[in-house]
Amino acid sequence: MPGGARISFNCVDSCLSSLKNCQSYINTGMDIATHVALDLVESFNDVEDVNSMENVMLEYAAMDRELNHYMRAIEETVNQIKREKPENIPDLKYLVKEKFTALESKNSDSDLQRNEKYIYFKDQLKEMRKQFCRQSDNDNEAIEQIDEDIAVTQSQMNFICPITQMEMKRPVRNKICGHTYEEDAILKIIQTRKQQKKKVRCPKIGCSHADVKGSDLVPDEALKRAIDSQNKQSWSTLEKSAGYAAATNEICY
Fold it and tell me: What distance in Å separates the CA atoms of residue 66 and residue 125, rounded to the nearest whole number?
């Protein structure tokens, strides 16, 4: 046929759409595994339990890589056919398999560790351990009757947004410089600066990062949990103090 065979790729497009849906399920699974790991750290569970969740994350990362390679193989095959316009309809299954095998042959363990969700998992796990080890140390100091007010104040300083100067409710972390902000506050600044066609400098005093982008912000689940935990402890202390005061008044009067 002059000009090459006419091939409809509607079916291929439909398959790609289904594969992308599968990828969203993998992402959801990785989000759940991250939350479970953070729950384990927060409840001071065995390290082996946390490590098992890391293995789950790596398995998900492997599935994500395989799915990405398969979708890439399909897209490259379709583009090749559109470009070359062959006279006869080629064996699409064979061409896709050939490209997929070539991509898979370059696999390495480091690929999995570069997975964006896995990197986020490791970062949040590190922050979670840091936050809850700090709180645990504060508890030990209280038991030893060391002035814990200073320790608590230092810990709470990490909970204050550099923009609003208030305790954060939905903290997000900048992947570039590592600083955290209240989500609504930083997004509002980014939007305003975008309208002015200006870049956003990190609002943390002393930070040299001069181009904060919305795409560089990720939820800081570990910090949010630490803030919530600190607030629960504060309320518990207040309730105990109120109960003690009421009991004392009852005895005295």
Answer: 25
pTM of the model: 0.72
Contact 96, 69 (CB under 8 A): no
- Secondary structure, 3-state, 93-153: HHHHHHHHHHHHCCCCHHHHHCCHHHHHHHHHHHHHHHHHHHHHHHHHHHHCCCCHHHHHH
pLDDT in tens, 107-139: 999 999 999 999 999 999 988 888 776 555 554
Dist. CA 127–CA 181, nearest whole Å: 15
- How far apart CA 122 and CA 114 sit, in angstroms, is 11
Crossing angle, helix 10-42 and helix 116-143, to 10 degrees? 10
Instruction: Read off the amino acid at residue 253.
Output: Y
CA-to-CA distance for 54 and 228, rounded, in angstroms? 24
> Residue 239's CB: how many other CB atoms inside 10 A?
10
